[in-house]
Amino acid sequence: MTPVHSVHFYDTDKALIDRLCGIVSSGLNLGNIVLLVLTSDHRDQLVDALEQNGVDIEAHIREGRFTIYDVQKTLPRFMLRGLPHTEFFKSFVGNLLKNAKKSARTRDQGLVIFGEAVSVLWDEGNHAGALALERLWNEILSDRALHLHCAYPRFLFSEDHAGMIDICECHSQVIGAPNQAN
Question: Which pLDDT tens digit goes with each residue over 144-182?
Fold first, then answer.
């Protein structure tokens, strides 16, 4: 499994949830472990969409293959004075990966992660914190094969073309960015 770090710029919550539903459903159907860090609104919308698509979320949770974390409770675990603290972050992610490995049925089982922490930081005006967090994820990706997906509402960049370019440069795949930002 080759590491992937994708970013999706979306216009509506529905566009985000539709893409997430596809990512999560595909990952679970392939037997992968899925970890999500979401806002409470997006968590509720995603769970509803997955259930409407026939995904047995409770079964995947029991198997340890589907876990959702609240972004507002997760950020304080590794943020310090507005920036991700490298050791706190690596410890937090290391524990996530260790727990995911325990739930894996095979040694080669994939791991799919989606997070909104960077988007929340950007929306709060903490661009340096968001970019630092993206870069820390890239360090983790260089050590492990996993798929990491991020998403940002496009309106955050309506007058910040340079910021969108900075975000795009942190990712191996870009979905939904204007051609000039790719």
Answer: 668 899 999 999 999 999 999 999 999 999 999 765 343
Per-residue pLDDT tens digits for 85-130? 999 999 998 888 787 777 766 556 688 999 999 999 999 999 999 9
Q: Which pair of structure tokens corresponds to residue 116?
A: 């909104």
Nearest by Cα to 3 from 106, 115, 150, 144: 144
Q: What's the burial of 35, exposed, middle or buried (CB within 10 Å: 0-12/13-18/19+)?
A: buried
DSSP letter string, 41-98: HHHHHHHHHHHHTT--HHHHHHTT-EEEEEHHHHGGGTEETTEE-HHHHHHHHHHHHH
Residue at token pair 């595909």? 26
Measuring CA to CA, which residue among 33, 35, 56, 42 is closest to residue 14?
A: 42
The whole model's pTM is what? 0.90
Q: Which of 171, 134, 177 is nearest to 154 (CA)?
A: 177
